[in-house]
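pasting for ref
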Amino acid sequence: MIKKSAEAYMKGDFPSAFESIKGVPEKVRDARLFTYRASLLLGVGRVDEAKADIDKALNMAPNNSDALALQSIIAVTQNEKDKALTLAKKAVEANPKSASARIALSYAQQANFDLIGARTSLEEAVKSNPENALAWARLAEVWLMFGELNKGLDAAQKAVSLNPNLSRTQTVLGFAYLTQVKTRQSKEAFQKAIELDQADPLPRLGLGLAKIRDGGLPKWEKDLMKMIDSGLKEGTRDLEIAVSLDPDNSLIRSYLGKAYYEKTQDKLAADQFEMAKKLDPSDPTPYFYDAIEKQTTNRPVEALYDLQKAIELNDNRAVYRSRMLLDADLAARSASQARIYNDLGFQQRALVEGWKSVNTDPADFSGHRFLADTYAALPRHEIARVSELLQSQLLQPLNVTPIQPHLAESNLFVISGGGPTELSFNEFNPLFNRNRLALQTSAIVGNNATFGEEVVASGIYDNAAFSIGQYYFKTNGFREGNELRDSIFNAFLQYSLFPQTSLQGEFRYRDTKNGDLTLRFFPDDFAPNLRDTNEKSSMRIGFHHAFSPDSHLIGNFMYQHQDISEHDKPLDPFLFLLYSSYKYEADAYSAELQHLFRWKFIKTVIGAGYFSIDSKENFIFVLDFPPPTAIPDIIKRDIDHTNLYLYSYINFPKNVTVTVGGSADFLEGGDKDRKQFNPKFGITWNPFPGTTLRGAIFRTLKRTLITNQTLEPTQVAGFNQFFDDWNGTKAWKYGIAADQKFSKSIYGGAEYSLRDLDFRWLDKSTGFPVAKEEKWKERMGRGYLYWTPHKWLGLSAEYLYERIKREIEFSLGVKNVNTHRVPLGINFFHPSGLSAMFKASYVNQHGRFERQNPFATGIFERGDDQFWLFDAAISYRLPKRLGFISVGAKNLLNKHFKFFDSDYFNPSVLPDRFIFAKITLALP
């Protein structure tokens, strides 16, 4: 009878299992029978009856290991964690070789946030009971919790080979396959599990997720708003069935809400997230997904509050996530929070969260991508911006996010917000990665004959993802000779060879033609006849391999060819110089490797790079002597640069992160060979909740980079390392900062840093090149106060300070300058999709500036100006996340002013009104 019942149980046939033991005579009803029947009763949710049978078993045999194990499992389900652990240990002591006792102990340890202990218990269980399928299935689960996908799959396959007729073993195998995106095998396993136990919600959940990942061809209905793919539609139906089987399961409801979000059924998604929060208030998952839903429905303040709650609850996932994976979760949530701060106009606070994300988990791609987007608004951060983008690309999983062509290019010469698209991570990115195609288009029109457009197509299919796009921007500028024409093409392909290994390749082409774009202090100091062209093409191959969830290796290999030409004609007709021209041609190669490692409270980033540039410069001066005489000056350079670096992030005690490391640079070629060691030290301390104190001191050597990109970390404790300096510049940087969260709606902070620069340049004024040393000093300060007084409003006040002091001989336009800026902003967001922005900026600048004199250089004149600038914009978010429409104006009152911009390539302000209209569309 018992054997027949057990066979029925193994097939998931509980009615037959109960029926088979009904006729067991009273005289043979021992502790083993009551324990067995209790396990059946627990399997169908009859806990009280199971408790009665367990009590009977323990009365007959007080040290019955299986009965104690069942008591422990019941205690776990009732959140009596200490009691569960005590009972499980007692069960193991009663029978150290009992698989059920070890399994029960693993659940109790997991409930007490001891995943390592749970894994050890299960390894002991399969060691002493190698034929126990449930022990192997449970071990597979725990391996997956550590992110050990191969070990999890091996254990799951072992479990199924031992007993393929258990719904549990098939379910675990299905999830093991799904983590490796082997959707065909996962669906087969889930289907078998459903056949074995149709009341189990987990295989329904897995089957739904697998169908969604497979995607399908879009179904184009009459109403474009209802266009969804077949995989998403069928998968959502399976998730709905899973919820009906276990309506009190918070996690399943969170995933159903996620599926509704993908179908742009935002009301249904929000309802599921709210129910999930009520069912399990300690789970961060529904808060995180709800935050994303609110962010994309124009409710960023509410999204911020939900995401803050998700971060607060993050460590509650320790019950099924390892410490390392929890750090990865926290990094991703911090990056998402940073993006919401950015939407609110809280840029400085956004940067704090971005740095926190990268320092918490240097291998998390989302933090790097966010920093790449945010650095676009900071002066002279182009190297940091495009380097963070490269690191993000190498670390990213397969996804359908478009690679916007302009993102990887430095020196766009476009005022912030004045291009076809903002430099931001695609906010139309789906929560579910699935096989699909996507198209994103953007366009801008404005005065001064300004027009720009960008089109990007992207897609994902099984183990491959691609993105291909083009960008075009033109403007006549605000003055004579200020025109710009810029064309960019980009193609990107990523392929996942294995779950741990991916390859990627990228081709970029850019053709830029422009006049004099530099904003100097005196308005009449410009070159109306200057014409520049810059054409470059680059190719790169990269890879990412994860030896384990805690050990990653990335590499990047790049080639670039570049042609630059410059032609100028002086204005003064009495000069003997008819015109001058400059041509530059270069072939450049680079190879970089980086290893990222995590161990307990220490993270390390170790890397090396090699850069080689072969260039030829040709200076031509045409003199007005009959006949016109050309004087060429050709310079050839071969530059080789090798760098090594080590950064360690020590998180001990828990509220302190110390960055200690160093880099070594070996530069050959140019004016002088250089060898330099650069120490790095930084500290981030959170003495109280909401308080962050930072400090850093480090040295750098400005390298000759290809496409301005490198894999070396771009910041130390949130202080940027790589500025757009003169090649070969040696610099020391010192910085301190404090950031405070006063409440969930008020934030403030301040930062101050110093840079001492030392570099060499080639003086040709005498006709004979002479290498000279120069020393510059820079001081920078920032302060901010942000407030969200209402769920529709974000208010911001900032203060920016910059002081530059340079030598007269080589000053690049300024001997000294002090700049103060006070931007004050209001951002309004309505749930209908309507948004409005208004910013008033006070600017005060004074210093000594070089005049553009055709007869002599080094003539400086004092100057000062102070003025107010006003910017405004109104935008509407299209329904179903189809895009945006916005109109706005920079320098609304058309204020003409004097201003020296220290960022020569990306102006922050313009002395002319710029009115624009912009549209961004995302399909499907």
